């Protein structure tokens, strides 16, 4: 594992690349990309067995970004892992390019299509069941967003994964508590969530989703938990790292960023990089 | 080696029984598929497989949306999920999961659904799936097949297992007359000419094929020569066979136990309009919901019997003659 200092630098880099890509695309979802960056960095640089030169390696660990709208951060992570060149990020959401506005399996390193909320945990469950059935020891990680928690099919997946005791599956909820149009608490409150998920037969834990130490410990706990899938409630801040984007529903998406806004955001992030 | 027992022509057999038989038969030969079930194996016909290969069953309970998206994820390890439930749940409840988590990434999943059409019978409107062909054929990359009888289903199943990518197979519920023998072949995208004829063609699918044959035999006696084509692949269409029906007989009646909106008749008419316009009549359920009743009573009620097909052919020939 890279040192915490290195991970922080990678996170910051992902945030910068995400914002540049969204700026170039003239649309996209900055808030959720910034909130999930640290989780993605730890998974790719501290946790998962993957091979960037062999994206379809059958024994790789799987990652499903169920909150697919945050894919600029995922694409940036894949760039840092060497799946495709950084310059490709300029093609995000463009007609003549392969970097779709939401994850598509034709993109190297993408394990599942997403963007339609509520399908990620089910797909991850299927992957975990496939691993068990074929006696492979890869693990499957699903990153959920607040919106996923309001879709009924996510709860079908919680029920089935608990029932089948899928201990090779971990779900991490990037709980920034802001959905498309309002705070979760005002729009459709799915909390308390730990009690609900644990009632479905999951091992649960609650962390600061911007602390690499806590992400690391929670994922270790998941690996050591037998007969139960693990649910990690990761408290995060929407727009994390850019002061004027933090905790603001305005920066959910699809936002056309002005030159001035981009400049201010990058200044803040680049200061942190030093 | 080949212990697969086919039925005799003329026997009445539920296609669900054939589904169970072929699942078990293929499972003995190959270990590359599993069954995804949502607590309805007794209803879909998959029960014998569940009894013989319990370790190859992925159970999801009554939660089809999760089952469908999970099938998409599961397929990535190279094992084929055969997802089986009632058509209304498989093609409607979990439709978006099928589209986004299976068809869009072109995953190797076979969706095999029973309980299609008013052929479902007494369970009534909520269980009678009359819109599945329309919604499944409108998804890119999906192959859509409809066996006409138990023997054809057993020919189709191994072929769709070998066809990479998403496939939807529509399976009837009630006993249907066996038309095809074990020697008949099935190829995806290839229709079968069941009877020759020169005045008109009935293109039928599923449970309607037997009724089409019945009506053609009646019309023969009246001196009207009707060709009957079994269109068991709805997508991709057999362009060649449909084109020769249009060119050689000049009149086409389509017959399906499905809403006339968007189904097989719509697919054929779209092709005909673009390639070789001839007079057509589309027989099916006339944009109505189903209802309870015995399958044969419902066929009468919704205008799907051999008698209705005879009338349709006569109508269309009058139109053709009037030109």
Q: What attributes characterize this protein structure?
A:
heterodimer, A: 274 residues, alpha/beta, Rossmann fold, five-stranded parallel beta sheet, 9 helices, 5 strands, B: 323 residues, 2 domains, seven-stranded mixed beta sheet, five-stranded mixed beta sheet, 13 helices, 14 strands, 20% strand
Layout of strands and helices, then pairs:
The complex is a heterodimer of chains A (274) and B (323).
Chain A: H1 4-25, H2 30-47, E1 62-65, H3 71-81, H4 120-133, E2 140-145, H5 152-163, E3 169-175, H6 184-187, H7 194-199, E4 203-208, H8 212-224, E5 230-235, H9 259-273
Helix pairs in contact in A: 1-2, 1-3, 1-9, 2-3, 2-8, 4-5
Chain B: E1 12-14, H1 15-29, E2 33-37, H2 41-44, H3 47-52, E3 57-59, H4 64-74, E4 80-86, H5 87-93, H6 95-103, E5 110-114, H7 132-137, E6 143-145, H8 150-162, E7 167-170, E8 175-177, E9 192-195, E10 200-204, H9 208-221, E11 226-230, E12 233-235, H10 239-249, E13 251-259, H11 264-275, E14 279-285, H12 295-302, H13 306-322
Parallel strand pairs in B: 2-3, 2-4, 4-5, 5-7, 6-7, 10-11, 10-13, 13-14
Antiparallel strand pairs in B: 1-8, 6-12, 9-11
Specify the oligomeric state.
Answer: heterodimer
What's the CATH architecture of the largest domain in chain B?
3-Layer(aba) Sandwich
Assign the CATH superfamily of chain A: Thiamin diphosphate (ThDP)-binding fold, Pyr/PP domains
* CATH fold descriptor of chain A: Rossmann fold
- The number of strands of chain B is 14
Which structural class should the secondary elements of chain B be placed in?
A: alpha/beta
The helix tally of chain B amounts to: 13
Main β sheet profile of chain B: 7 strands, mixed
Q: From the 3D coordinates, which CATH architecture of chain A would you assign?
A: 3-Layer(aba) Sandwich
Task: Please give the alpha-carbon distance between the first and last residues of chain A.
Answer: 21 Å
Proportion of residues in helical segments of chain B = 40-55%
Please state roughly what percent of the residues of chain B sit in beta strands, choosing from under 5%, 5-15%, 15-25%, 25-35%, 35-45% or over 45%. 15-25%
Strand order of the largest sheet of chain B: 3-2-4-5-7-6-12
Instruction: Spell out the helices and strands of chain A N to C.
Output: HHEHHEHEHHEHEH
- The CATH homologous superfamily of the largest domain in chain B is called Thiamin diphosphate (ThDP)-binding fold, Pyr/PP domains
What would you call the structural class of chain A?
Answer: alpha/beta
Strand order of the largest sheet of chain A: 1-2-3-5-4
Total of DSSP H or I helical runs spanning 4+ residues of chain A = 9
Which percent range fits the helix content of chain A? Answer: 40-55%
CATH class of chain A: Alpha Beta
């Amino acid at each position: 594992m890279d040192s915490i200092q290195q991970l922080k630098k990678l996170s910051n880099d992902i945030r910068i690349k995400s914002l540049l890509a969204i700026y170039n695309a003239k649309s996209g979802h900055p808030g959720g990309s910034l909130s999930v960056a640290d989780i993605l960095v730890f998974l790719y640089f501290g946790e998962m067995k993957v091979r960037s030169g062999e994206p379809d390696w059958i024994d790789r660990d799987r990652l499903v970004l169920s909150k697919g709208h945050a894919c600029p951060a995922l694409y940036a992570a894949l760039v840092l892992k060497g799946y495709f060149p950084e310059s490709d990020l300029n093609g995000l959401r463009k007609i003549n390019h392969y970097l779709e506005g939401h994850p598509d399996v034709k993109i190297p390193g993408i394990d599942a299509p997403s963007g339609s909320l509520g399908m990620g945990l089910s797909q991850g469950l299927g992957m975990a069941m496939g691993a068990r059935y074929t006696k492979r020891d890869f693990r499957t990680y699903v990153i959920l967003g607040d919106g996923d928690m309001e879709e009924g099919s996510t709860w079908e997946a919680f029920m089935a994964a608990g029932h089948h005791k899928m201990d090779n599956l971990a779900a991490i909820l990037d709980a920034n508590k802001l959905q498309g149009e309002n705070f979760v608490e005002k729009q459709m409150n799915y909390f308390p969530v730990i009690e609900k998920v644990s009632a479905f037969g999951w091992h649960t834990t609650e962390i600061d989703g911007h602390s690499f130490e806590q992400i690391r410990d929670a994922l270790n706990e998941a690996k050591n938990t037998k007969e139960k899938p693990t649910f990690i409630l990761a408290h995060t801040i929407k727009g994390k790292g850019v002061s004027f984007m933090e905790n603001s529903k305005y920066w959910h998406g699809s936002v056309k960023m002005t030159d001035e806004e981009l400049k201010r955001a990058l200044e803040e992030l680049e200061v942190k990089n030093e | 080696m080949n212990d697969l027992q086919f039925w005799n022509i003329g026997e009445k057999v539920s296609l669900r029984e054939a589904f169970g038989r072929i699942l078990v038969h293929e499972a003995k030969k190959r270990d590359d598929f599993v069954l995804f079930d949502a607590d309805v194996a007794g209803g879909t016909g998959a029960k014998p497989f569940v009894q013989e290969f319990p370790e190859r069953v992925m159970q999801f309970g009554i939660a089809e949306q999760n089952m469908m998206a999970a099938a998409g994820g599961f397929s990535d390890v190279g094992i084929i999920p055969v997802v089986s439930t009632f058509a209304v749940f498989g093609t409607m409840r979990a439709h978006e999961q099928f589209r986004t988590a299976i068809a869009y990434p072109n995953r190797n999943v076979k969706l095999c659904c029973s309980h299609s059409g008013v052929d479902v019978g007494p369970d009534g409107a909520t269980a009678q799936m009359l819109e599945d062909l329309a919604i499944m054929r409108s998804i890119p990359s999906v192959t859509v097949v409809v066996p006409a009888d138990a023997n054809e289903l057993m020919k189709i199943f191994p072929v769709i297992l070998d066809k990479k990518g998403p496939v939807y197979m529509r399976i009837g519920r009630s006993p249907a007359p066996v038309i095809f023998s074990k020697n008949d072949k099935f190829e995806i995208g290839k229709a079968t000419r069941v009877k020759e004829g020169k005045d008109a063609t009935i293109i039928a699918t599923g449970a309607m094929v037997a009724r089409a044959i019945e009506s053609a035999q009646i019309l023969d006696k009246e001196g009207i020569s009707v060709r009957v084509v079994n269109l068991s692949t709805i997508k991709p269409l057999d362009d060649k066979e449909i084109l020769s029906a249009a060119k050689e007989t000049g009149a086409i009646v389509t017959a399906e136990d499905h809403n006339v909106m968007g189904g097989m008749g719509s697919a054929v008419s779209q092709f005909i309009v673009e390639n070789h316009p001839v007079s057509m009549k589309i027989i099916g359920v006339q944009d109505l919901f189903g209802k309870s009743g015995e399958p044969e009573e419902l066929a009468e009620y919704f205008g799907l019997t051999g008698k209705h097909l005879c009338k349709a052919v006569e109508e269309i020939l009058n139109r053709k003659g009037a030109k």
